[in-house]
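Take a careful look at the sequence and tokenised backbone pasted below. I need to know what the token row says about the fold.
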Amino acid sequence: MRRVHYGLVFAILSPFFSSIATILQSGATRHLHPLIIASMGGILGSLLLFIVILLTGEKINLTEIRKNLKNISLMTLLRPLAGTTIFVYGLSITEGIKAIFFTKAEPYFVLLWHWLLKKERVNPSHLILLAIHLAGAVILSTGGILKFGKAQFGDMLVILAMGFFSLSYIYGSKLSTRLGSKISNAITLGLGGIILFPLMLIFAPVVQTLNETIGWTYFISYVILFNVVGLTMWFASLKTVKGWIVSALRSLGPIIGAPFAWLLLGETLSVVQIIGGSIVLVTSALIAREQLRMGSKSV
């Protein structure tokens, strides 16, 4: 199997792990403070990855790490710090089953960064798809009842996090190529977790949650599935697959994530919300097809 084929396999598998992990993460937020999940998730995920790196004998090139400090810093800021923290806070006040659909807004942010940073022309058909996509997101969030409450604010935070995650594709691709997927993931996760650690000690009731067995079970499962497996696959896919393709393929996630949310947390969507979620998925797929037809370049 050629190298690029491995990248496509990782790009397809990653959203499945990520969607299940999002549901587990949502379950963890019912018992643990968001800062505990964001900080300890990064630290634990990093430690597990470094153990894997040591066991597999993968070399850590300190010289190459020093050369890429800027990309490491930007990647850490965009994903484990800003993106993950905002995402977890959003998850804590909305439902995980909705969140896995809202994460499919990511390709549109990729399109936005193309326009802002690379001055690429935005096709009018993309703008139409975006408008329909946003309408579907509103239907999914509100269930057809126009209101703005706590849950809708959580939905907005989840979508905002996608803006940070989508920008990280630029730096994730560079780091994965130069440092390797596991090392890139381990370093940025660890840095993010360490930076958030003092905030966690100040604002999160860590000691009071030590007896939250279910919460910590959800948390550890999420760390393994996403921070260790899913995110490493994401880094690996960016070595050979264009960033916008990797982002678009994440629309596959709800196929397994939605049933898992129902089985694990008992979360369901109304008929109106299912229609909204379907609009979100279809428009994400259409934007991917349009980009493929036009031969878009990698982010």
Q: What stands out?
A: Confidence is low (pLDDT under 50) at residues 295-299. The chain has 13 helices and no strands.
